[in-house]
Amino acid sequence: MERAPLLTLVGIAKHFGEHEVLKGIDLEVYPGEILALLGPSGCGKTTLLRVVAGLESPDRGRIFLEGREITLLPPERRGIGFVFQDYALFPHLTALGNVAFGLKGKDRLERAKRALERVGMTLFQDRRPGELSGGQQQRIALARALAPGPKLVLLDEPFSSLDASLKASTREEVRKILKETGTTALLVTHDQEEALSFADRLGVMRGGRLEQVGTPEEVYLRPKTPFVAQFLGRTNLLSGEGFGRHAQTCLGPVPLAKPAHGPLLLSLRPEALKLLPQEAQEGTLGQVVAREFKGHDLTYRVRLLSPEKEILVQEGPESPFREGDRVRLKVVGKGVALEGHPSKTPVGAD
Q1: Nearest by Cα to 306 from 271, 254, 350, 259
Q2: In the chain, where does the domain assigned CATH 2.40.50.140 lie?
């Protein structure tokens, strides 16, 4: 039996003046799922989050939570928690006071304490936000969102204000808390790594529309459009001709993840290529024009000698090639044929 979605968005549209920010968004979020909305600034992801929260009203479309329409309900009656980008903690209240704020009933302090316990902040309940680190403030904000027992929690760029050393560990902690409590969450981020590592599924937005929704693996390994392929990390966009299980390209035959026929544009990730010495008997001849060492890996920019085109190749940190070296490029992974008109080749494709 197919499980029912917890949150359903149907045809959500929103204008600000003459600017259409959301253009008919359809989306389902399932119980216990973490779904990330990912996209560049101005794509409409934060506006969509605010529409779900009830902080903005859609011009068109409907919102359902557990099958009940909430499109016209005020925020306080939706049963939705919200973690703001700046945490929005009251500086004059303690951690416990912040979490208890807005709770009703005689047991409000006990419920607030339980929420703090869930996020591992019981020992800090008497401290004010100014006495806490960024990661600790993040957990207080999450505890406040969880305390009323919401059906859904919304997180708006929740890790953007943390420095790099805190970001990864806090992200792991928050994901663990959401999973342990069975909380359904909708996250907005512009950070590709964050979306890929944090979410069960992600939706890539562009210009007020959802371009693709799927698991991180699906969207990264099988992007549908050139935009999705390029936004979720580096890729090589290659024009070619599909012959079923492979395509003929400037790199020779490239195996395809799914069969395709005729003119096409494909995405080939840098890790799907390997560099060989010039004297190797296989691969396409090229010259290393740039080398970027990042500790855990190396990214090369290699210019093909015929036809003239630059290709990105990712290798391990001990890869020996240097700028100026003549090399051969061997295809070791699969390419993905992208949707759209192959005759309209985007920037970056040959």
Answers
A1: 350
A2: 234-337
The torsion region of residue 249 among left (phi > 0), alpha (psi -120 to 50) and beta comes to beta
Architecture of the 7-222 domain = 3-Layer(aba) Sandwich (3.40)
| CA–CA separation, 343 and 238 (whole Å) | 12
- pTM across the whole model: 0.86
| Helices 164-180 and 134-146, packing angle to 10 deg | 20
Report CA-CA distances (Å) from 256 to 226, 248, 275, 346. Answer: 16, 10, 20, 20
Least Cα distance to 185 among 146, 132, 225 occurs for 146
DSSP 335: B
Cα Dmax for the chain: 79
- Between CA 8 and CA 67 the distance in angstroms is 8
Within its chain, how far is the Cα of 234 from the centroid? 14
β-sheet bridge partners, residue 247: 242, 254
Helix (H, G, I), strand (E, B) or coil at 60: strand
Q: Is 67 helix (H, G, I), strand (E, B) or coil?
A: coil
pLDDT tens series, the chain, 350 aa = 578 999 999 999 999 999 999 999 999 999 999 999 999 999 999 999 999 999 999 999 999 999 999 999 999 899 999 988 787 899 999 999 999 998 888 899 999 999 999 888 999 999 999 999 888 898 898 899 889 989 999 999 888 877 777 788 888 888 998 999 899 999 999 999 999 999 999 999 999 999 999 999 999 999 999 999 999 999 999 999 999 999 999 999 999 999 999 999 999 999 999 999 999 989 999 999 999 999 999 999 999 987 789 999 999 999 999 999 999 999 999 999 998 645 334 434 44
With beta carbons less than 8 A apart as the criterion, state whether 38 and 204 touch.
Answer: yes
**DSSP conformational letter for 124:** G
Domain 234-337 top-level CATH class: mainly beta
Whether residue 257 contacts residue 336, with contact meaning beta carbons closer than 8 Å, is answered with yes
Domain with CATH 3.40.50.300 in the chain: 7-222
